[in-house]
Write a structure and sequence with these properties.
By secondary structure, this protein is an alpha/beta fold. It has three helices and four strands. The radius of gyration is 12 Å and the shape is globular. The mean pLDDT is 93.
Length: 98
């Protein structure tokens, strides 16, 4: 059973291994200080770098759901897939991505 969270954040990502650690650190810092429970849903859009390995390590430190995109390529389709995985009452979208 999934733990209830106040907010879920969708992060579409493709070849963002270098940027993901800092992004998740900043999200965690801001939301922890605000005492908001959260989960980040990263939708990997067929990365060819080490993004999935980096995410697997980060998953041990942060509340993170990693989803490997199945449908059509592109950010809009990644966001649609990610939104279907959300269960929180509030959903945020990282518009710039990493």
């Amino acid at each position: 059973m999934a733990k209830f969270v106040d907010l879920e954040i969708l992060v579409p990502a493709k070849n963002e291994a270098e940027n993901l650690p800092r992004l998740l650190e900043r999200i965690d810092q801001a939301l922890s200080e605000a005492k908001i429970t959260y989960r980040v849903i990263v939708i990997d859009d067929r990365s060819t770098d080490s993004s999935l390995k980096v995410l697997a390590k980060l998953q041990k430190k942060y509340p993170l759901l990693i989803h490997s995109k199945q449908g059509q390529p592109g950010k809009a389709f990644a966001l649609l897939e990610g939104a279907k995985l959300s269960t929180a009452p509030f959903l945020a979208i990282d518009r710039k991505s990493t």
